[in-house]
Design a protein that fits this description.
CATH superfamily: Pleckstrin-homology domain (PH domain)/Phosphotyrosine-binding domain (PTB)
Strand order of the largest sheet: 1-2-5-6-7
Shape: elongated
Distance between the termini: 67 Å
CATH topology: PH-domain like
Radius of gyration: 23 Å
CATH architecture: Roll
Number of helices: 4
Largest sheet: 5 strands, antiparallel
Order of helices and strands: EEHEEHHEEEEEEH
CATH class: Mainly Beta
């Protein structure tokens, strides 16, 4: 699994009002694409033909297919980025956003293993919004459960930070009103 992480003292606490920081970035496996899932299904066939495993035979016949799928034009450079503010799908070598959802809008992240993905230990992650609708689908995430947990932890941290900032602002306003009343009374 290809992962990139930036270190932070506490996830989501890096001055989120000032800058957006990358927490984790993963790249999809070839099981994100139909041809890759087909390869996974073929390689999952049990059995032998004489002394040769069927999967070895299939692998020798179609060894080029996984490479072609992985390096297919337009697919190269797709990655899923988790920051302290949002979850993004980035495309291309420049990393232009192709889809995103704010962390505070995420209710749950559900893994869905499609046929052929189990061979690659991968799954699609469905990001469910507060309204119960699927907001984003991350196809073919390798080791999907660990990325799912990272998303939920980042979401929880973001929600707590926003709640703390709201409380601080509420207290500042209450303090300002108290000071105004004290000045008006004197």
């Amino acid at each position: 699994m290809a992962i990139r992480q930036d270190s932070q003292p506490i996830s989501g606490i890096t001055p989120s009002l000032v800058a957006e920081r990358l927490i984790m970035e993963v790249w999809p496996s070839i099981s994100a694409y139909a041809a890759g899932r087909l390869v996974g299904q073929l390689f999952s066939i049990p059995g032998r033909v004489g002394p040769v495993r069927i999967t070895l035979f299939i692998g020798l016949v179609i060894f080029w297919l996984p490479l072609a799928v992985y390096f297919w034009p337009g697919r190269l450079g797709t990655r899923y980025s988790l920051t302290n503010k949002r979850l993004l799908i980035r495309k291309g070598l420049t990393g232009r956003p192709a889809g995103e959802v704010a962390l505070e809008e995420i209710e749950d992240v559900r893994p869905r293993v499609r046929p052929g993905q189990a061979y690659f230990l991968a799954a699609d992650l469905e990001v469910i919004g507060r309204d119960g609708e699927v907001r984003l689908v991350l196809p073919g995430v390798s080791q999907a459960e660990s990325f799912r947990r990272a998303i939920l932890k980042a979401r929880d941290a973001r929600v707590r930070v926003l709640a703390a900032l709201e409380e601080i602002e509420r207290r500042r306003q209450a303090e300002a009103q108290t000071e105004q009343k004290a000045e008006a009374a004197s």
